[in-house]
Amino acid sequence: MQRFTMQSWTYLILILCSTVCAKSVCLCCDWIQDHYGTLSGKYHSLLDEMGGNITEQEVPVDFPESLYRLMEDAQYEVQVRFLNETIHEIFKLFDENMDAVTWEEKKLDDFLILLHRQFQNLKSCVSPATKFKRLERFFKTLNKKVLVEMNYSAQAWELIRKETKYVLEKLDLLVATMH
Ligand SMILES: *[C@@H]1O[C@H](CO)[C@@H](O)[C@H](O)[C@H]1NC(C)=O
Ligand SMILES: *[C@@H]1O[C@H](CO)[C@@H](O)[C@H](O)[C@H]1NC(C)=O
Ligand SMILES: *[C@@H]1O[C@H](CO)[C@@H](O)[C@H](O)[C@H]1NC(C)=O
């Protein structure tokens, strides 16, 4: 009887722990499932509405599609890190000289606020690990080839807006495959 009780307790504690631990490994799984898309829908609209039509000019830097394809099959935590880092890199771009930009200021601000909220929610989700070098290189090249070489002109920023839209759409597609 005594022995049975001890075993039951051990068993119960094991079950409890595995439930709690599994949850803490992925604190934000539910959050991504339920809220990522809502925020994303809002900042996509703002990105569309803050200026005129998205430019038809081609962006002279290619998004790392091969890295993206790897992410589609990656572990959940790696995917979350990829989302986190991509949004962080977009922020760094929008921190550059925007004097020439003609977009509606309020919508631009709101866009950045919502994107930042998305970043805040992702940031603490999983433990950080090594960076995605290929992704970092892409954003660095984008900065150099578009913003710097085109002298932070309004047209340069239109290209950044176009590429940002594309990249955020890719993240949405990735999130849709995550579970
Ligand atoms: C914007 O795009 C729409 C739909 O493609 C088009 O009808 C409209 O003429 C465009 N506006 C400008 C200013 O190019
Ligand atoms: C998210 O990105 C920020 C900025 O690079 C970093 O400090 C943080 O550790 C990242 N979090 C994860 C989970 O990768
Ligand atoms: C770059 O743009 C700034 C204003 O945004 C201007 O003062 C400067 O002369 C430009 N430089 C070149 C090389 O076009």
Rounded average pLDDT:
88
Give Rg in angstroms: 21 Å
How many beta strands in the DSSP annotation? 0
Class in CATH? Mainly Alpha
What ligand molecules are bound, each kind once?
2-acetamido-2-deoxy-beta-D-glucopyranose
Q: What structural category do the secondary elements indicate?
A: mainly alpha
Helical residue percent band: over 70%
Major sheet: none
N-to-C series of helices and strands: HHHHHHH
What is CATH's topology name?
Answer: Growth Hormone, Chain: A
- Write down the domain tally: 1
CA-CA gap between termini:
43 Å
- Global outline: globular
Strand content bin: under 5%
Question: What is the number of helices?
Answer: 7
Report the uncertain regions: 13-25
CATH architecture: Up-down Bundle
GO cellular component, one term: extracellular space
GO molecular function: cytokine activity; cytokine receptor binding
Family: Belongs to the alpha/beta interferon family.
Main location: secreted
